[in-house]
Amino acid sequence: MARHSRFEHFRWVGDKRTQLVYDTDAWTEQSTIDEIAESGVGICFGPDTLAEARNRGYTQAAPGMVRRRRLPRA
């Protein structure tokens, strides 16, 4: 899957509403990443690693995983 143009330089993209982080190289549902980008609730991490995302309280998303969506704080 090609990366979304807004996140083309980042592998890990987080959703501020659900606190889930997506691996753009392995994620197969392009619509999920597109929806995060269009809504403006995506966050990238520096360094671009899963460990940094977990350090900020994010959990790695799995297919079919559902969480309640909240308004982002920032």
Structural class: alpha+beta
Which regions are unreliable across 5 or more consecutive residues at pLDDT < 50? none
Q: Helicity, in percent?
A: 10-25%
Provide the β-strand percentage band.
15-25%
The best one-word shape is globular
Give the overall average pLDDT: 90
Largest sheet: 4 strands, mixed
| Termini gap | 29 Å
Helix-strand topology string: EEHEHE
The structural domain count equals: 1
Biggest sheet strand order reads 3-1-2-4
Count the E strands. Answer: 4
Q: Radius of gyration from the CA trace?
A: 11 Å
Count of helical stretches: 2
Structure description:
Strands 3-1-2-4 form a 4-stranded mixed β-sheet. The protein has one domain. The radius of gyration is 11 Å and the shape is globular. The longest helix is centred in the middle third of the chain and has 10 residues. With 74 residues, it is an alpha+beta fold. It contains 2 helices and 4 strands, in the order E-E-H-E-H-E.
Question: What does this entry show, briefly?
Answer:
The protein has 74 residues and is α+β, with helices and mostly antiparallel strands. The protein contains 2 helices and 4 strands; from the N terminus they run E-E-H-E-H-E. Strand 1 and strand 2 form a beta hairpin.
List the helices and strands and how they pair.
Elements: E1 12-15, E2 20-23, H1 30-39, E3 42-44, H2 50-55, E4 59-60
Parallel strand pairs: 2-4
Antiparallel strand pairs: 1-2, 1-3
